[in-house]
Write a structure and sequence with these properties.
- The protein is mostly beta strands.
- The protein is 12% helix and 52% strand.
- The chain has one helix and three strands.
- Strands 1-2-3 form a three-stranded antiparallel beta sheet.
- The radius of gyration is 12 Å and the shape is elongated.
- The N and C termini lie close together (11 Å).
Length: 50
């Protein structure tokens, strides 16, 4: 399963990270991409959950 943190985004006072994860669909078996923008300290948690 591929996972990669793509970009660091800077807003007024917070530093944010955009993370993209490839997830296999249980119904069809096809892969889809899940994107999320979060604080950098939550990125590892995002990649570890299924």
């Amino acid at each position: 399963m591929a996972k990669k943190t793509v970009a660091s985004l800077q807003t007024s006072s917070k530093r944010l990270t955009k993370a993209i994860k490839m997830v296999k669909s249980p119904k069809t078996g096809a892969y889809m991409f899940v994107e999320s923008i979060m604080a950098p300290e939550f990125a590892e948690e995002f990649f570890n959950k299924k």
